[in-house]
Amino acid sequence: MTTDTTTHITFVLDSSGSMSTIRDDTIGGFNTFLADQQDEPGRAAVTLYDFNSGVEQVYEGKPISKAPELDEETYTPGGQTALHDAIATAVIETDDHIEKLPAAVQPETVIVVVLTDGKENASETPQGRVRELVETYRLEHDWEFLFIGANQDAALTARKMGMDTDKSLDMSHSGEGTQAAYESTSRNISEARQQGEAGGFTNEDRQRQSEADE
Description:
Blueprint: E1 6-14, H1 23-38, E2 43-51, E3 55-63, H2 83-99, E4 109-116, H3 127-140, E5 144-149, H4 154-160, E6 168-170, H5 175-195, H6 203-213
Helix pairs in contact: 1-5, 2-3, 5-6
């Protein structure tokens, strides 16, 4: 692939009440992720969803160079965890957005990143519907899905939703774990932008999370 590749990154970020203890590290990690990706070759656009008891699209299809950072006003944790609603909404609306773009600028690579620190407890969307959507876009449209989960078995949660377990990561619910998770995610996205596919989370990524738990 050339350095002029086009990538769309949809970030689905948990803002439920339990995220409040890692709020500052979540803000810092996301902003560092944006800065890292701005330095990568190729074109990229970012869509950001924020979810707790409901789902909000914060912005859509922003060029990576103009994607707004998070701050204490735009990231305010509270409420429950409508994880299934968030993923389903993000997939459907990202597809709608891409379909409306001129063919010449439609992305070659689409990556959906989900970061949550809790289990589903507030959605109307059944898990089976999420799995159907994820499998359709992953297998038929070659979308990439990265799942980062704290306070759960991330691989099990990812598998139930039709995601590749190699592209899931157990995150330590700590400042160090949060920062490391964003760094690991940014590396995966860089790989996907350059090569068309993310390599997944490595043993080193998992070791960093284990050490952050100690």
